[in-house]
Known about the structure:
Layout: E1 2-8, E2 17-23, E3 30-39, H1 42-48, E4 65-72, E5 84-87, E6 90-92, H2 98-101, E7 113-114, E8 133-137, E9 142-143, H3 150-153, H4 159-169, E10 177-181, H5 185-196, E11 200-205, H6 211-217, E12 221-224, H7 228-233, E13 238-243, H8 251-255, E14 258-266, H9 279-282, E15 287-290, H10 296-308, E16 315-318, H11 323-331, E17 338-342
Parallel strand pairs: 10-11, 10-13, 11-12, 13-14, 14-15, 16-17
Antiparallel strand pairs: 1-2, 3-4, 3-8, 3-17, 4-5, 5-9, 6-7
Helix pairs in contact: 4-5, 4-10
Bound molecules: NADP nicotinamide-adenine-dinucleotide phosphate and zinc ion.
Amino acid sequence: MVTATAYAAPSATEPLVPTTIERRAVGPRDVLIEVRFAGICHSDIHTVRGDWGPQAFPLTPGHEIAGVVVEVGAAVTRHSVGDRVGVGCMVNSCRECANCLAGNEQYCVAGFTGTYGAVDRDGSITQGGYSSHVVVVEDFVVGIPAGLELDVAAPLLCAGVTTYSPLRHWGAGPGKKVAIVGLGGLGHMGVKIAHALGAEVTVLSQTLKKQADALDLGADHFFATNDAQTFAELAGSFDLIINTVSAVVDIDAYLRLLALDGVLVNVGAPAEPLSVNVFSLISTRRALAGSTIGGIRETQEMLDFCAEHNIGSEIEVISAEQINEAYERVLASDVRYRFVIDASTI
Ligand code: NAP
Ligand code: ZN
């Protein structure tokens, strides 16, 4: 066993506190990673606060992990001691179903094993990256390319791939008009990646407060959604909309912004259901879709793409004792644009 320091939520209603957790002994195909930086994803907050259902507590969140390999099992071939590596939202899957075999482990028929709060193969509950160390089977560990610093790379492991995957799947590129709804952790990565793919990028944010930032990130246009005129002016104009909002929005209002055959991909995951008026879809053959994270191969591809295009996350590095305060700021849409925990303070 490996004893790691960590921050954990004791319950859905209490702040996270320092603790220690036991990681499994490094098995033949496992990698022991010293965590250097861990991003704070809004999903961490949804999970520990019970938005998505009851959890086993205490729970250590964190699925945007960047660190360095400090030990490898005897049969490990993909990583070596000293490698800079990342772990995202998954630490295992069945590896046998058609989806896993196609590299879509995130859609594993048996359900992937989440990095935290999931039942692991040995029956234990997985614990995430707000921790000094993690032990992960080598196939679910990706390499962080030279040129990407670990702090700005950490958020790519969830926010980066969650936006990269649908942007690629639905063909964002030159000649395509893409809108990103919500300029938070996911949204700002969506802007950077869509811009690097060559698309014309519009940000739809609640107010004009983040306008200058969005244009710096690579957006071509910016509109505030608290202005009804925005929805009139942009009606029928986008090929692809990625909705990253963590709360329920009026999905019909956004569907009406799509052109013929346009697709709205919902990646935001609020606790409550969204409702849709079918006429928003059938009037111009629009589609409403969803997408979750990305496969392991695709995560590596995204990291290589980001290194090549010099894309990292815009981050505010915090010490572990600031985690609870950071959660409140994320909930208030006051994050520019990802909090990253310096794991040496855990
Ligand atoms: P975040 O940093 O909090 O960003 C969400 C943004 O949504 C906010 O910055 C804000 O942007 C906007 N927003 C928040 N509340 C709103 C409201 N009531 N009405 C309208 N807009 C609002 O969160 P995140 O980490 O990017 O995650 C976003 C969502 O995606 C969460 O629900 C998370 O669980 C989910 N998620 C899904 C996946 C997946 O695989 N599908 C992966 C990761 C995360 P503005 O200030 O610009 O309006
Ligand atoms: Zn996440």
